[in-house]
Design goal:
With about 425 residues, the chain is an alpha/beta fold. The protein contains twelve helices and 17 strands. It folds into two domains: about 100 residues, Urease, subunit C, domain 1 (Roll), CATH 2.30.40.10; about 300 residues, TIM Barrel, CATH 3.20.20. Bound molecules: N-carbamoyl-L-aspartate (NCD) and zinc ion (2 copies). Pathway: Pyrimidine metabolism; UMP biosynthesis via de novo pathway; (S)-dihydroorotate from bicarbonate: step 3/3.
């Protein structure tokens, strides 16, 4: 007999409405979605969801697992366990690990490492250039053939226009996206936070927003010329949103993501030299934060991605001048966004799930992910929208506790996460 499981008495979204439902899972796939209490429970296993929200498993196209190379910060195991805790069932791993998976052999080894340890689906990014720096392109065709989701040098921008141009030409032929950490090094000026009123007040070196916007402007021009799909990581500046909006209006194949922290915080939240608020790109001005939300609402920005970037407590205890850039995020993304944007009515729950699941799956062609429909793999997240919890160090399954949201009390806790019908997180 085929393995059958009933998730009974949940609630799912139909349009903007939450509707009571049962979800039946047979042999790892969603086999039936029906009215609450109506599914035949016969000799099936049953989990009573007690009215919790049943969502398609979330999809995060931007995570850092530090494995191999810095496994004191995170491993593929702990990073994907953290993702499961956050309701993510598919994540994409950045290639800024050591060694960089920049040859077909190293890339294949990285895929094997992911397969050996991961508790959720992991898509792997290949770097654009050897060592993720400089101008020597990787073997695009071989990496694509091995299954690279896309190419990115995340952690650093591609400095030379010609290198980006050649990379996009190859990506266009292969039909694989270029995913850009947009940062012109010559415009960063050794900064550690957004250059503006607050950096001047705190006496900390500032990063001008143009370091992001200028490179995105260059790249949308190259994307238009090559026909490549160009996706921008962690958009942070109002100027960048304007460039992207114009590019989309002109028919350029461009997509973009924004992080929860850039949507929920701005540089005015930095009240002292505190490295929990140090990330790249930095938190912008309040006007940048407003422009990011407006960009998401009008479709200029397609999705939300966490940029989960664990670092050690000792590193993050340093001054912003010395600490590394990056914060964790895959365990707090849904609860923070639900609590701070959905509950006050700024966005709807349906919009949030679109940005955290459906759109990223659609943009990156992950056909098995992002939808709660019959026939799909049972990649499911269940959230308790009512109960609140406080973010403390014990909250995290990640090895990294470097979060500016420590101490926040949030609703929208994950009750259950399953991948292909197998429970990978349960509260
Ligand atoms: N976002 C960050 O501040 N840091 C990321 C790199 C990156 O995403 O650019 C990291 O790997 O630590
Ligand atoms: Zn980046
Ligand atoms: Zn990143």
């Amino acid at each position: 007999m085929m393995e059958r499981l009933v998730l009974s008495h949940g609630q799912r979204l139909i349009g903007d409405q939450l509707v009571a439902c049962d979800v039946v899972i047979t042999a790892g796939k969603i086999s039936q979605i029906s009215d609450a209490g109506s599914a035949d429970t016969g000799d099936s296993d049953v989990i009573d969801l007690q009215g919790a929200f049943v969502s398609p498993g979330l999809v995060d196209v931007h995570e850092h697992f530090r494995d191999p190379g810095e496994t004191e910060k995170e491993t593929i195991k702990t990073g994907t366990q953290a993702a499961a805790h956050g309701g993510f069932t598919t994540v994409a791993a950045m290639p800024n690990v050591l060694p960089v998976p920049d040859t077909p052999e190293r890339f294949a080894a990285q895929l094997q490492r992911n397969a050996d340890q991961a508790v959720v689906h992991v898509q792997q990014y290949a770097p654009i250039t050897q060592g993720r720096t400089g101008d020597q392109l990787v073997a695009f065709d071989q990496m694509a053939a091995l299954g690279a989701m896309a190419f990115t040098n995340d952690g650093n921008g591609v400095q030379t226009a010609d290198t980006m141009y050649l990379a996009m030409q190859q990506a266009a032929v292969l039909g694989v996206p270029i995913v850009a950490h947009a940062e012109a090094d010559s415009l960063v000026h050794g900064g550690v936070m957004h250059e503006g009123e607050i950096s001047r007040k705190l006496g900390l070196p500032g990063i001008p927003s143009v370091s992001e916007t200028a490179q995105v402007a260059r790249d949308v021009t190259l994307a238009a010329a090559t026909g490549a799909h160009y996706h921008v990581c962690h958009v942070s500046a109002a100027g960048t949103v304007a460039v992207l909006r114009a590019a989309k209006q002109n028919g350029v194949a461009v997509t973009a993501e924004v992080s929860p922290h850039h949507l929920l915080l701005n540089d005015h939240d930095i009240i002292r030299d505190d490295a929990q608020f140090k990330m790249n790109p930095p938190l912008g001005a309040p006007t940048d934060q407003q422009a990011l939300l407006a960009g998401l609402l009008d479709g200029t920005i397609d999705m939300i991605a966490t940029d989960h970037a664990p670092h050690t407590a000792a590193q993050k205890a340093q001054s912003m001048r010395q600490a590394p850039f990056g914060i964790v995020g895959n365990e707090t993304a849904f609860s923070l966004l639900y609590t701070k944007l959905v509950r006050p009515g700024v966005v709807s729950l349906a919009q949030l799930i679109d940005w955290l699941a459906s759109r990223p799956a659609e943009v990156f062609g992950l056909s098995g992910a992002g939808r709660l429909t019959v026939g799909q793999p049972a990649d499911i997240a269940v959230f308790d929208l009512a109960t609140t919890e406080t973010v403390t160090p014990e909250y995290f399954q990640s090895k990294g506790h470097n979060s500016p949201f420590m101490g926040e009390t949030v609703a929208g806790q994950t009750v259950l996460t399953m991948v292909g019908g197998t429970v990978v997180y349960q509260r």
